[in-house]
Amino acid sequence: MERKLIQPYPNHQCPRPVSEADKIVSPVPVFYIRYRYSHHAFVSGYDRLCDYVGETIRLSKINYWMGETVLRLPALLAAKRGGHFEYSRYDYVMEREAIRHFLAHYNSIYHFVYGEKSFKRMARFAGRNGNRIVCTVHHPASHHPWLFKKGMDHFRKADLITVVSRDMVAPWKSIVGDDKVAWIPYAVDAGYFKPVESENPDRPPRCVFIGHHERDFETLPQVVEGILSQHPSVEFIMISKDPRCEPIARRNSRAQWHPRMSDPDYLAALQHADLLVLPLKCSTTNTAVLEAMACGLPVITNTGGIEDYLDREGSLLFPVGTTDAMSEAAVRLLRDPELKNRMSAAARRRALTFSWTSIAQQMVGLYKQLAAG
Questions:
Q1: How many Å separate Cα 315 from the centre of its chain?
Q2: Which residue in 30, 121, 134, 251 has a CA-CA distance of 20 to 30 Å to 46?
Q3: Model confidence over 314-362: pLDDT tens digits?
Q4: How far is the C-alpha of 155 from the C-alpha of 177, rounded, in Å?
Q5: How far, CA to CA in Å, does 187 sit from each of 39, 111, 242, 266?
Q6: To the nearest 10°, the Cα dihedral for 4, 7, 10, 14?
Q7: Topology given in CATH for the domain delimited by 206-352
Q8: How far is residue 189's CA from residue 239's CA, in Å, rounded to a whole number?
Q9: Is a pLDDT exceeding 80 seen at residue 2?
Q10: Domain ranges of the chain
């Protein structure tokens, strides 16, 4: 049976509410079309931007009711046959709400925080009432053919596309024009994700792997086995809903698989680990990388876009498909506490440059330019 509409955070309450002092005042009214991905921790996700600036558009009771009744079939058809892979029934109904709001306001910014998923129908109303449309996009260009099987013309109606990796700038400029694309980094709540104050000196060394999207599950078994075979006491923790982790854990007594974790357990897993080892197929940004860095974990991963967030002092990057070199790098760091501690401190410093307050200020700067243009 098709589920009822999900209202992500209909009454949004974050365990780390943003203080008024940390909020950024925009010179132009800003309204967000927000979505929450269920796999994100409560304090994670790009939509945390909405807590720092402007106002989130809420799904009204009437549109919720219509989405469950008279609009149910049209919304399902729009989602299933629209050639827009991530667009859902919720997005259809939420856009209806956003369009109603858009037509009732003037000279404002409407920002879709997950543009590939949520932005479609509002393109027809672009330019009305002096309002501007902003979309933040997250996928690499290699995903576009399967994300948008009926084309990407609707994005040309947006006034600004913000991307989360420099590698995305050129592809998006070719789609919407040179003056409509800007890079604004992703951010992390480094006040929540932070190193533990005290550590058990007797705990075994630990590597952690997190997530499922574009993770390289073809090389992960070799990387895990390479680390465990070279280091007699290390534990390897896999936090992922992907079932391909299960045989890795079954073959190795020191490998653990956790399909789900509570937010406190997830934070503890990061704080009580030594390294993030994350084989990737491709990347733009990565939530797990930023959260691990904020907890002081050196990062071992693959090139492909995530380089915008990493530096040599706190991370080691390898070409996609690398196995032996990644395993050897992890073991080398685990056997050299002084080097690992230096990289840990560097990772934390780097993460602090991507605070939500800093990124929100950059975004408000773009809103100001857009409103003045």
A1: 19
A2: 121
A3: 999 999 999 999 999 999 999 999 999 999 999 999 999 999 999 999 9
A4: 10
A5: 17, 17, 25, 18
A6: 120
A7: Rossmann fold (3.40.50)
A8: 20
A9: no
A10: 24-187+355-372, 206-352
